[in-house]
Amino acid sequence: MTAHFPFDNSYARLPDRFFARVAPTPVSAPCLIKLNTALARELNLDPDFLATPEGVEVLSGRQVPDRAEPIALAYAGHQFGNFVPQLGDGRAVLLGEVVDRGGMRRDIQLKGAGPTPFSRQGDGRAALGPVLREYIVSEAMFALGIPTTRSLAAVLTGEDIFRGGPLPGAVLTRVASSHIRVGTFQFFAAQGDIEGVRLLADHVIARHYPEAAQAVKPYHALLEAVVARQAKLVAQWLHVGFIHGVMNTDNCSVAGETIDYGPCAFLDAYDPAKVFSSIDYRGRYAYGNQPQIALWNLSRFAETLLPLLADDETVAVPAAQEILDGFSRVFHGAYGPGLLRKIGLSEFRDGDNALCNDLLTAMAANGADFTLTFRRLGDAVLAPSEPGAVRDLFTDPAAYDAWAARWAERLQADPGAPAERRARMNAVNPAYIPRNHRVEAAIAAAAADDFAPFNELVDVLSRPFDDRSDHARYADPPAVDERVTQTFCGT
Ligand code: AMP
Ligand code: MG
């Protein structure tokens, strides 16, 4: 078995208080749903082996491979703004780390692998629905070019779990640059364990931000780097209409990957106040609030680092504040140019921000589909002043026409032939996103033992920028009776 998993586990070499050693709890009758063979190869794992019954034993947690050192990580976190001093991996076990083909260290974790010392009242298990949702959406995010944890495999456990009623249990094999969260830092900081914070910071620098080690002030550089990655990440979310849904500090990766897909969703009609999560009563994590919340989370991160920034708090606090103030610059530096590219402009001019914002305002006022509007602008670029399909997406098409006239004029001053511009736009404006109604339909079919819609959806979303005539319907917004208005954690 050794040859199959070349583990090298750096986190397990940290002091004992960082984690609990706990093996996955075996399940009765594991059955492979999906294996991500391309990802397996990237990780130097053998996909043929993983698909064998012996491989599925590992992916379901029935067998712990040689060199794995299964642990559940300790962390804390602010959940909807309230601090919880101990959360931790309550239903996930980190098998270990491998170094991938690009030389990057990657965590291999089984999510839904059974109880751990951090499970509190939970059963440590995951239901099929949330496992498939995470598989679909995380792999879609990857294909969209957005930093994210990945999904290596999904297996059925052969055991029911109870969430109100019985549901099929499943395990997701999740791959991440690391599973270290803002909440991991908070876990030590809240206990006044400055040594713990320092060890964790050194680990994160070595693993994710080696350039910070060379800086005059490595911990300042660490904070600055984490702020920058989160700022860029949230800008990318906004560009594709993604709503994370539970941006608690324990769901905020210091490596800057999208992590912990729960009640996440993509916008259909553009609405900056949109909330899908059934537990987000006050809209804290609404689409348009995400930059502000990311900064709030980073502020909690900065607080944990204060003792490392300077011995004197009156020195450390302004230093941290100055770095946090950089969030806005990095965010807008990513968000603005990204929007510009979405409407086909390659050079910034005065008035362009207003042009972008006015489009968004008109979209919101007219219930225009976010993804389709931008995608169809790529077609409209070939004949900008002609009424095209974009206007049909607006309840009042005249609102689009008024904007499109300004846009057409602006395009004339921007370099590039129409066909080339359209190609550029189609490379940033996806045709296919994981539309909520498609995700729900795939999950519902799977619950009835039909995995074909799930497999097809994963396939379509693996090439989100390619028009595929055989799958054109996947680009369609939901019909009125297909609309999903709420999503659930399902934990
Ligand atoms: P999440 O909603 O996935 O971000 O999880 C929040 C916290 O609840 C984490 O500490 C999880 O490990 C824990 N948790 C969620 N679901 C379960 C479960 N079924 N059993 C045990 N712990 C869980
Ligand atoms: Mg979480």
Task: Please explain how this structure is put together.
There is one protein chain. It contains 16 helices and 12 strands. With 491 residues, the chain is of the alpha+beta class. A hairpin with a 5-residue loop joins strand 6 and strand 7 (105-111). It is globular. Among the domains are: 11-176, no CATH class; 182-336, no CATH class. The two termini are 32 Å apart. 42% of the residues lie in helices and 13% in strands. It binds adenosine monophosphate (AMP) and magnesium ion. The site of adenosine monophosphate (AMP) has 16 residues, from loops. Residues 87-91, 118-119, 122-125, 251, 260, 262, 489, 491 line the site of adenosine monophosphate.
Strand-helix topology:
Blueprint: E1 19-21, E2 31-35, H1 37-42, H2 47-50, H3 53-59, E3 71-73, E4 77-79, E5 82-84, E6 92-99, E7 105-111, E8 126-127, H4 128-143, E9 150-163, E10 165-176, H5 182-190, H6 194-208, H7 210-213, H8 218-240, E11 242-243, E12 265-266, H9 290-309, H10 313-342, H11 352-365, H12 370-380, H13 397-412, H14 418-426, H15 436-447, H16 452-461
Antiparallel strand pairs: 1-3, 2-9, 4-5, 6-7, 7-10, 8-10, 9-10, 11-12
